[in-house]
From TrEMBL:
Molecular-function annotations in GO: corticotropin-releasing hormone binding
Predominant localisation class: secreted
Signal sequence coordinates: none
Full protein name: Corticotropin-releasing factor-binding protein
Lineage: Eukaryota, Metazoa, Ecdysozoa, Arthropoda, Chelicerata
Length: 281
C-alpha cells in the first residue's frame, strides 16, 4: 500500500493500522502533525524512512516514538517500558537523517513531524513484525475476537492492555501468583478468583484501572485480582472512564496470565460517571 498524508484536517493527525509506504509533502504549514500506527497485539511496528528532506530551519523536525501519546501522557508508562524515555525517541532533520529502521517494543508507535518548509518531504515504510512474547498492548474497543490474554512469560515485568475508551471487562480465567496466601508452597488446586490481593500482601496480581489519561500512575485501580481460577467470573467490571486498562504486575517468580473479555460502553454519557466511580474505590 502507498498513500499520501494529506493535511485535510485542522490537527493533521493520522491513524493507520495497515502496512505500507506513507508520504508527506509540506505545503508550507508549520503545524505539528502525527502518524499514529496500531498493529494487532501480536506484532511490533517497524518504521523505515525511505526518503527524507526535512530542513531544520523554522523548527523542522521528524520524531519517531516507541509507544503512544495522548494529551501529554504516554503508553506504556515509563515504569512499565523496557527502555528509558530518552531511548524511546529518535529525532531527525537536515543532515541528521535516519539510517536504520526503528522498531517499537509493542504494537503501537508514532511518527511526529513538523515540516514548515514548503516542498520538504519524507516517506516512511510501515511494517509489522511478529512479536512472540507481547507484553504491553493497545487494543481497539471493537474487535472481531474481543478476548485477550495478558502474560508475563515468566518475566519480572508489568504488562498492560490499554483502551482509549470506557469498557466493560469480564474475567474468563486467571493464573496469577501460584503461591498460597500464607506464602508457603505452590498451589496445585484452584483457589477461585481472589480480590484485594495487594492488601493481602500478594505480589503478583492484575489491576483493572480507569482514568482520564494514558499514564498508569494517573489511573485509579477499580479492582485487583489474583489466584488460580479456570471459570469465568459472573460479574462484569464496568469502568466508565475515557481511558481504561488491565495491568498484570509480576515479580518474575511465576507464569502469570489473565484472560478477559471486553466490550465498549457505548453510552458516551456514562463517561461523566468516571469521577464518581473512582471516588467510590
Amino acid at each position: 500500500m502507498s498513500a499520501n498524508l494529506s493535511r485535510h484536517s485542522k490537527d493533521c493527525i493520522f491513524q493507520k493500522s495497515v502496512e505500507g509506504e506513507y508520504t508527506f509533502i509540506s505545503t508550507g504549514n508549520d503545524a505539528v502533525c502525527a502518524l499514529y500506527v496500531i498493529a494487532d497485539p501480536e506484532y511490533v511496528v517497524e518504521f523505515e524512512i525511505l526518503r527524507f528532506d526535512v530542513s531544520c530551519t523554522k523548527g523542522g523536525l521528524l520524531t519517531v516514538f516507541d509507544g503512544w501519546e495522548n494529551n501529554g501522557e504516554y503508553f506504556p508508562s515509563q515504569d512499565d517500558h523496557p527502555k528509558p524515555m530518552d531511548q524511546r525517541f529518535s529525532e531527525f532533520c537536515g543532515p541528521i537523517k535516519p539510517w536504520k529502521p526503528f522498531v517499537t517494543s509493542q504494537n503501537v508507535g508514532i511518527v511526529l513531524f513538523r515540516v514548515p518548509t514548503r516542498g520538504n518531504y519524507f516517506s516512511v515504510l510501515v511494517s509489522f513484525r511478529k512479536n512472540p512474547k507481547p507484553c504491553n498492548v493497545m487494543l481497539l474497543p471493537l474487535s472481531d475476537s474481543p478476548i485477550y490474554t495478558l502474560r508475563n512469560y515468566g518475566r519480572r515485568a508489568n504488562c498492560s492492555a490499554a483502551f482509549i475508551y470506557p469498557m466493560n471487562f469480564r474475567i474468563l480465567a486467571t493464573s496469577i501468583g501460584s503461591q498460597s496466601l500464607s506464602g508457603t508452597g505452590n498451589l496445585e488446586f484452584e483457589t477461585g478468583l481472589i480480590t484485594k490481593c495487594r492488601k493481602r500482601g500478594v505480589r503478583d496480581y492484575a489491576e483493572f484501572m480507569g482514568g482520564t489519561g494514558l499514564g498508569m500512575d494517573g489511573m485509579m485501580v477499580i479492582q485487583d485480582v489474583c489466584g488460580l481460577d479456570s471459570l469465568p467470573s459472573k460479574k462484569a467490571i464496568g469502568i466508565p472512564c475515557g481511558t481504561t486498562a488491565v495491568r498484570l504486575v509480576s515479580t518474575g517468580s511465576f507464569e502469570d496470565s489473565i484472560t478477559f473479555g471486553y466490550e465498549p460502553i457505548i453510552e458516551r454519557e456514562r463517561v461523566r460517571l468516571c469521577a464518581k466511580a473512582l471516588m467510590t474505590v
